[in-house]
Amino acid sequence: MKRHLISAADLTRDDAVLILDTAEEMARVADRPIKKLPTLRGRTVVNLFFEDSTRTRISFEAAEKRLSADVINFAAKGSSVSKGESLKDTAQTLEAMGVDAVVIRHGASGAPYRLATSGWIDAAVVNAGDGTHQHPTQSLLDAFTMRRRLVGRDAGLGRDLAGRRITIVGDILHSRVARSNVQLLHTLGAEVTLVAPPTLLPVGVGHWPCAVSYDLDAVLPKSDAVMMLRVQRERMNAAFFPTEREYSRRYGLDGDRMAKMPEHAIVMHPGPMVRGMEITAEVADSDRCTAVEQVAGGVHTRMAVLYLLLGGNEPAVTHARTEETK
Amino acid sequence: MDAEVAEVSDAARPVLEGPDIARVLTRIAHEIVERAKGADDVVLLGIPTRGVFLAGRLAAKLAGITGRTIPVGSLDITMYRDDLRLRPARALARTDIPPDGIDGRLVVLVDDVLFSGRTIRAALDALNDIGRPRAVQLAVLVDRGHRELPIRADYVGKNLPTSLRETVSVQLDEEDGRDAVLLGERRETGVPAAEGRPDETARSGGR
């Protein structure tokens, strides 16, 4: 039995709903005076971060510690990796130490899949972002936030996002968040529309299970949630758009645009937000912006994923596709 | 613990029917009032799934007797089980603690069947993380014996001496459409006896 979470596409609808429901129960733990469960006592989890990340690493670390796992943080900078050690050697070192799970972030798309399927290591592998490929726990926490806001905290239990219209705006080309979200939201029954300049859409986006538009203003009135993506300056190695100012005018979300959204619609952002570029401070600080809730939901969702993968002797999630592609 | 619906044979015979269950719950409610001297600070916590329904019914009866609303909640003990690692990860049920909490209160845990005692041990651990009750008591509909831990119930609906080859299954109207306690023969499930400890079977039922 494989026990990995590599891609949002691995999850069936029932798996995804189970994770979201479990996350709601985990959220209740956060309201208690003692925010800790003995569930993963005696298990060792390594956070293997080859790429810088504060938010995701802290979120995973908090989730692991709340489940009483032993946590080892590994940052590639200053480690043997900077001396030239390969992923395989790192993996075998961790295997020799008897690690139960590896949470990996890597700049190369596919590194977690390689780690999970190469036979180097027995541990469960959880993808915490690989290149421009996938960030499955981010899409789960986004879905968690959407379900809470659009369906309701208790009313949402056992339900998916069928019929909700979600718009994802910005740099789709470089965004693993967008890829994961399109797949997961589609699995959960939502209708996804991507909005971006043509230069920031990947080749083959027509085959994705979503609609594509270049006109944000036309899509906003029909959206239940609008997810703004960060313009990744570090990946802007070519002229994807003429100026930041022009991008901001066509694809940035300001107060006037937000007013075009339906009353109940929410604004989401995976962070870090670049205020004034893709989102104005007015929108970022409004009640409709869920950026902070998403961070809290991240801990609950990651607790749910870790519990369902590691809590028993077999994971509770079935992973439809990983079994086939293995 | 939960009843072992999946493993009950067709030949299960009822040992308690609907009116009997109502009667023993009334008796337990009176016993709680008597022992707690009025049930002023009582909080009822049901253990999912059927313990929650029983706790709800007890709360209604206590309200009838005392004229006060008795706080009632549910306590999922899945994450505190000692056999978590022996079985596939299971879905969590609901934990709902009344808004006023349990600090300084008399917590009465409510479950359908008391068997090995491991569920109650887990529940005590879970309570530990939620607050500090003045005292904890245990009310069960059926005590079938075979304890593996030094735990006993304060309020028992029916003592039901059983053999390990038998199953006790509680059905409640809220979940099963009828009220009954059924005694049946265990079917061969192919699960080794050591792992397939009878009371640890049907916990994965979820909400």
Describe this structure in words.
The complex is a heterodimer of chains A (326) and B (207). Chain A is an alpha/beta fold. Chain A has twelve helices and nine strands. Chain A has a five-stranded parallel beta sheet, with helices on one face. A four-stranded parallel beta sheet of chain A has the order 2-1-3-4, sandwiched between helices. Chain B is an alpha/beta fold. The N terminus and C terminus of chain B are likely disordered. Helix content of chain B is 25%, strand content 23%. In chain B, helix 1 crosses helix 2. In chain B, the strands form two sheets. Chain B has a five-stranded parallel beta sheet, sandwiched between helices. Chain B has a three-stranded antiparallel beta sheet with strand order 1-8-7. Chains A and B meet through helix 1 and helix 11 of A and helix 3 of B.
- Backbone structural class of chain A: alpha/beta
N-to-C order of helices and strands of chain B? EHEHEEHEEEHE
Q: From the alpha-carbon coordinates, what is the Rg of chain A to the nearest angstrom?
A: 19 Å
Anisotropy-based shape of chain B: globular
Number of strands of chain A: 9
The largest inter-chain interface, given as chain pair and residues per side, is:
A-B, 24 and 22 residues
**Total number of beta strands of chain B:** 8
Structural category of chain B is: alpha/beta
Unreliable runs of chain B: 2-7, 191-207
The CATH class of chain B is Alpha Beta
Give me the Rg of chain B, rounded.
Answer: 16 Å
Report, as a whole number of angstroms, the end-to-end distance of chain A: 11 Å
CATH architecture of chain B: 3-Layer(aba) Sandwich
What spatial order of strands do you see in the largest sheet of chain A? 7-6-5-8-9
Q: Number of folding domains of chain B?
A: 1
Q: Bin the helical content of chain A.
A: 25-40%
Query: For the residues shown, what is the average pLDDT of chain A?
Result: 91
